[in-house]
């Protein structure tokens, strides 16, 4: 298994766990868990593959991804009640999923020889869109747009780190560096309140 | 016209009727009816064709699909007031649309030679995503995720029935069997409350 | 730069401004502004290119589009407070974006030799879907489905005007005519309340 496949698997499994946790908040049945989990797990990578015209889409080529997502959904269905705070678990698993999905998107775009702007966008899209679909479909406030937290910023910084690192190091260093930067920024935002200034409207000039 | 084209037409027309009914609940004008109807009618099949890299997408190849969706929207615009309960009509038309869209997705994926996991997912996606787009865009609670009803389960069981039946019978038997299983489960859920157990959080273990 | 590229650039920049304005209403940080702006700016054209199988997608081929969207987002981040009514500014910029995106979609579909139904739908989809994604993701009531305003109708009429004009005039006339018709109808609806009759349920016949 290549590093990129490994990242895709990790991203699918951890995003599927988050999808199933959101399904538990909506009190769906086990097939509903699997549906939301599969949508969350494959959403970002599917958009990446369709936009970059990779054929076949990663989970069509290797249906093991679907089985992994369904297994993750079943695991959550039977164990989620063991956790005290499902929202906290969800937030941290989502941070972990972001940190593996961003290098998965970045790595594919770099391997196809795209320039920096496309690589950055594919990192952000692969990292953010699966969770965004999950939250829109389940009518949750999207984590990706939660005010006063680093999320897209963490993805963008991770993708930028991958581009910089790939100038001087092989993929096996650049993609883990991307994951580390993404997770550090997202975790720092959750734990210590790291943030960028948000827009605040001021009174118009006189 | 092949059986697959027939299923695509039936799916487009019946989903268009549901889209127009949702538009009537939002009190849109006739062009708004046509817009929501066309989105609902083509959404699932478009995702199917893009993911499976079928070119051209079914309604680009045969614009009659669009005309059929627009005609269905106009029909609803002028007649919806004749029905006592538009919500009930919507729910049952949606069940019918699901029952023709699942075999339409399943049949295309089987005809392209995909394995069971991809066939199942394409059946579910083609059946569920058009209605999901309709409900997200019009800010309705998605029927597909309504708690305590069989919906994705009906689609999944129908797609599984198609796979099993296709081992021993031709497509002309397998796809109608898929439609019958899907509709029976969905209708049984609506009429008799058939359901799977839903997730309920329990207190954490001590 | 061809006329179609020019329309794509104008559409990206003006839709990015609207995305950033919606981000300002959600009080996001500057990276959130860029994310919503890029999604809004590229959403409609990406769907167009994926459905019509244009490879590569327009902004993958020319990453200048992304830079333009990000620059527009930054501009709004630092200047939006200068405007008295951001909602009014948003509505009018959105009308302008619609009026350049519809000919951008229409022109591409006509250049690929598609028939009238596909050209109309691509005009509407390219014009409407970016803003629809923006509003769904940011949990705003979609402008495109706002009751009692011409929006999809303006897009549809513009696309129809392009088809008619292209029978007797070159693209350099047909596409500006499309933009003029779209903007006139949308602006007339905003300024003078032009509208089509909306659906109103009546009591069922006895």
UniProtKB/TrEMBL annotation, chains A, B, C:
Pfam family of the protein (one): Gly_transporter
UniProt KW Lipid biosynthesis keyword: no
Sorted UniProt keywords: Cell membrane, Membrane, Transmembrane, Transmembrane helix
Family, as annotated: Belongs to the UPF0126 family.
UniProt name for this protein: Trimeric intracellular cation channel family protein
Domain Glycine transporter: 6-80, 92-165
Subcellular localization: Cell membrane
Chain segments annotated as transmembrane: 6-23, 30-51, 57-78, 90-112, 118-137, 149-168, 174-196
Annotated organism of origin: Albidovulum sediminis
Membrane protein topology class: Multi-pass membrane protein
Domain of life, source organism: Bacteria
Keyword check for Transmembrane: yes
């Amino acid at each position: 298994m290549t590093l990129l496949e490994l990242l895709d698997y990790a991203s699918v499994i951890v995003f599927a766990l988050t999808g199933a946790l959101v399904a538990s908040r909506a009190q769906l049945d086990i097939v509903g868990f699997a549906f939301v989990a599969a949508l969350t797990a494959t959403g970002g990578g599917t958009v990446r593959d369709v936009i970059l015209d990779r054929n076949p889409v990663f989970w069509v080529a290797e249906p093991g991804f679907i089985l992994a997502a369904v297994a993750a959904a079943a695991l959550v269905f039977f164990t989620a009640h063991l956790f005290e705070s499902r929202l906290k678990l969800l937030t941290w698993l989502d941070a972990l999923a972001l940190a593996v999905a961003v290098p998965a998107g970045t790595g594919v775009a770099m391997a196809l020889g795209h320039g920096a702007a496309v690589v950055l966008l594919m990192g952000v899209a692969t990292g953010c869109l699966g969770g965004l679909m999950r939250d829109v479909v389940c009518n949750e406030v999207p984590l990706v747009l939660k005010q006063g937290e680093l999320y897209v910023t963490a993805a963008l910084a991770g993708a930028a780190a991958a581009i910089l690192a790939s100038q001087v190091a092989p993929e096996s260093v650049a993609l883990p560096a991307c994951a580390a930067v993404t997770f550090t920024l997202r975790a720092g935002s959750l734990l210590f309140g790291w943030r960028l200034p948000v827009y605040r409207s001021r009174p118009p000039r006189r």
